[in-house]
Design goal:
alpha/beta, Elongation Factor Tu (Ef-tu), domain 3, Rossmann fold, 2 domains, 6-stranded antiparallel barrel, about 15% helix
């Protein structure tokens, strides 16, 4: 895991690209060399430098946590969806404007150990939770000894399904059948596991999806890693606002023990712990 100096950095926006219902924010990250280079599954706490709050007489917003969607050519990419005042402000940013970023934070996906290198990778994402799977796909593709990862993505409808373009060669499921498989992405996952159980699953998405992934992988004894989300005020383990129950008792801090957590460490994925990847 990258160990970056613990300080936020001021980064400049180079572009906001439309991707259906989503936006991809690109920022120049001149410190994007070790120790700042993000690993798949890590995240950043982001705030706009200007107009980050309700007004002069109101408190500023807390920083928002976003998974790295990609890091390439000295730029970091983040997937945004307008779901509230903080994300709306970020979606409004234009090239030349600036953001504060505290990053990289958290524990990312584990790609080695046990027999993970010999298992075919299944990347399973839902909605804006597809974000960390893009940088994961990029990383896996750099290892010629690995079989190409299979990508399964689920969305509500066509506009959001346009987000699948963030990854390569994705199979898509939509709730309304407007694109790809008519049904849940976990139905595609079940088909893949039944045809070849020698796989490893890496998933991020809504809580209900992650719980279905966890239960399915437990049933078939398939290793799985889940990128979770919970309300974060700090991003580095100080506030204990993002805890989730641990199998056997106790709690895990999503920001410090995760956000990527081995599914075997969880009895269940609670409703508040879905990994949305880009609107933390």
């Amino acid at each position: 895991m990258s160990q970056a100096p613990f300080a936020r950095r001021e980064l400049t926006v180079t572009g906001i690209d439309d991707l259906g219902a989503y936006r991809v924010m690109r920022v120049v990250d001149p410190a994007g060399e070790r120790p700042h280079v993000p690993e798949p599954g890590q995240f950043a706490m982001i705030a706009a430098v200007e107009r980050w709050g309700g007004g002069e007489d109101e408190r500023p917003y807390l920083p928002r946590a976003f998974s790295f969607a990609r890091h390439a050519e000295g730029q970091s990419h983040f997937l945004l969806e307008d779901v509230g005042p903080g994300t709306r402000r970020l979606c409004e940013l234009r090239p030349g404007e600036r953001v504060w970023a505290l990053a990289p934070l958290g524990r990312g996906f584990t790609l080695e150990g046990g027999d993970l290198e010999q298992r075919r990778a299944l990347l399973v994402g839902g909605g804006v939770g597809i974000a960390p799977l893009a940088i994961l796909q990029d990383t896996l593709a750099q290892d010629p000894s690995r079989a190409p990862a299979t990508v399964l993505l689920g969305f509500r409808e066509r506009e959001r399904a346009a987000g699948a373009a963030l990854l390569r060669n994705a199979r898509v499921a939509t709730d309304d059948g407007s694109v790809g498989h008519h049904g849940l992405v976990t139905e595609l996952l079940a088909q893949e596991i039944e045809s070849d159980p020698h796989v490893a699953v890496y998933a991020c998405g809504p809580a209900a999806m992650l719980e279905a992934v966890r239960a399915l992988c437990e049933l078939h004894e398939v290793p799985a890693q889940l990128a979770l989300e919970a309300g974060m005020a700090c991003g580095f383990g100080a506030c204990y606002g993002c805890v989730v129950p641990r199998r056997g008792g106790g709690y895990l801090r999503v920001c410090l023990d995760g956000p990527v957590i081995d599914a075997a460490m969880l009895e269940r994925v609670d409703e508040h712990a879905g990994g949305v990847g880009g609107t933390r």
